[in-house]
Amino acid sequence: MKPVVLCYPKCGTCQKAEKWLKANGIEYTYRPIKEQNPTKEELTEWFGRSELPINKWFNTSGLLYKENNMKDKVKTLSIDELIDILSQNGLMVKRPVLLAGDKVLVGFKEDDWKTLFGK
User: Where in the chain are the domains?
Assistant: First the structure.
């Protein structure tokens, strides 16, 4: 099964990730994160598989994050409440999100992607 990459086309980090995938000959399925927002159920599952703290799932440089004062909210709200917020708008989610088998990577760290794909 091809990996799935949730991206936003205007996101520079997503563009870098896609360029890397193509340069390494890795076929993938593209899922536009804004139009096909991850559901609460998907995010709950992915969060568990990612082994990341919930604050690492937020796009901290985005306008929505700043406008909604998320910096303080991620410290006080429950994980369930935070996943609910993430599920309401894909642009709140840090991108790209890579789903490959049982692995979930958030953001593009080339070394992590190299390790995952054996490159």
Answer: 4-117
- 18 token code pair: 């896609």
Edge-to-edge strand order for the sheet containing 4-7? Answer: 29-32, 4-7, 97-100, 103-106
Give residue 69's region: left, alpha or beta (phi > 0; psi -120 to 50).
left
CATH 3.40.30.10 fits 4-117, yes or no: yes
pLDDT digits (tens, 9 = 90+) for 27-80: 999 999 999 999 999 999 999 999 999 999 999 998 999 999 999 999 999 999
The closest of 9, 3, 1, 50 to 28, measured between CA atoms, is 3
- The answer on pLDDT for 86 being more than 80 is yes
